[in-house]
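The authors assume throughout that readers already know how a fold can be written as discrete tokens. The format is easy to grasp once an entry is in front of the reader. For illustration, here is how one protein appears when written out as sequence plus structure tokens:
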Amino acid sequence: MKILIDIGHPAHVHFFKNTAWALEKKGHEVLVTAREKDVTIDLLDSYGFKYEILSRMGAGKGNLMREWAGRDIKLLKIARKFNPDVLTGILNPCVAHVAWLMNKKSLIFTDTEHAKLANRATLPFADLVFTPASYACDLGKKQVKYNGYHELAYLHPAYFRPDPGILSSLGLNKDDKIIVLRFVSWGASHDVGQHGVTNKLEMARELEKYGKVFITSERKLDSEFDRYRIHLRSDKLHDLLYYASLYVGDGGTTAVESAILGTPSIYVSSLAGTMGNFTELEEKYGLMYCFNDSGQALQKAVEVLNNEQAKQEWGLKKDQLIRDKIDVTGFILSYMDLISSQVRK
């Protein structure tokens, strides 16, 4: 069977990497196409993937629409040459459009309820739409719910083993308090009109009283932040999050990753309360706090850092979550096996 995977965001590399490797090991042919955004290409290179770049991220909704149109055309040309049996991506309109035009199977994954523009452009053309069971919207007959999160496709213990070498590489030891702050660019179509952390410098200066602060940011920050900026290989961030004492930021994916890894996680966004996976992680598992007010988020961060048992408490809550949830990569592969058996008939 031939599978085309289109990558639109760095997190999508992580989501699909184990699936792609497993499919290739089973003898299937996998083609990866990608959008050049942030560290996407660095990640693909670090994991040894061969890929074709379809487009580069632009700014603003107008540029996004033009980019989508250009990606549609380029992906269609590549797909016609490759002739895949199935195309897949995360809320990816180009995958859905090209599969529909070629009468091929499309598998679309999404966990972002408020991505209305991308939903309208993608879902009507998709064959199947996979969402976490916690997803708050009913997408009709195409929707397939699974008991997990996107991030469990790569952070499930079946795949993720933290590298303690990350600590020594940063001059740290296991007893140090590590605080990771992440700030995103707010450039996605579903980010228009939204905001995240508004007190960035105040937060960094206050939290460094309790430990070592590292900042990772999609957008350029003023020179005042230079002392906090982390210089880390893009494929090593999860190791750092695993050993961290606290995560705070407006990066939603990183907030979920931290929670799943057993690290206290504080998500700061005007979108707080709108996404089912965040609500479940906060209300059912107690692994995350969500705020739309940066001042309240900072107060909670200080409270967590003053709790010397926080990391141990989060570890126990994380273990319960892992017992409750599925291996998402295994779930994806089961569907690929089903399609493969249909292709062979």
Summary: The chain is about 45% helix and 20% strand. The first helix runs from residue 10 to 25.
